[in-house]
Amino acid sequence: MKKLIILLLIYFPLQLQAQDSEFNPPRWKNLSRGYVYLMLHQAKFGGGITYDYGFNKYLAAGLGVELTSFEDHLMVPTFIDLKLRYPTGKFEPYVNGQFGYNNYRVTYQYHYTDNSGNPATTNYQKTGKIFYGVGAGVSYLFKHIGVFASYTFRGYTYKYASFTANNNVISFPDDKPNANVVSLGIVF
Hints:
By secondary structure, this protein is mainly beta. Helices cover 12% and strands 64% of the residues. The protein contains two helices and eleven strands. The chain has helices at 2-18, 27-31, and strands at 33-41, 44-54, 59-70, 73-85, 91-103, 105-113, 119-141, 146-160, 163-165, 168-170, 178-187. Strands 1-2-3-4-5-7-8-11 form an eight-stranded antiparallel beta barrel. It has a two-stranded antiparallel sheet with strand order 9-10.
């Protein structure tokens, strides 16, 4: 029995590896997609890359990272991407959801008058927090590469660090702006 199990454990990976050829690629290669794109994020240009593993022809999930800006400062969203696809020939319309972390850090100055009546300044930071996105798009697949266009509505959350001025703790509520993201790129 042990020999049969060992033989099966060796046989199946070899069988899967034998299927990995240009003429008969493994099924996951036909279902998974990589996306490289330029994006327009609230009238600012950026770019990104996402890779989605295809569980079947309708469902894919993966990871993404983008370089863009918010309020003229660098922002690097990293996220999990979930796509529901409906392939029809070479066209592949989809809806997607994103959830991730917004890597963003900006230092501001707070000006005030100290207890002695002198002007004073202290620094505080605004940093990224979580974000979500929902959207839709369509891919057109040639043979092994294609093009795509998509729209995503995003909701961001930014937090401010508390600081002390005149022995008082100053804090601001979270900032929660929304953004429209239009992406165009290649899919492979």
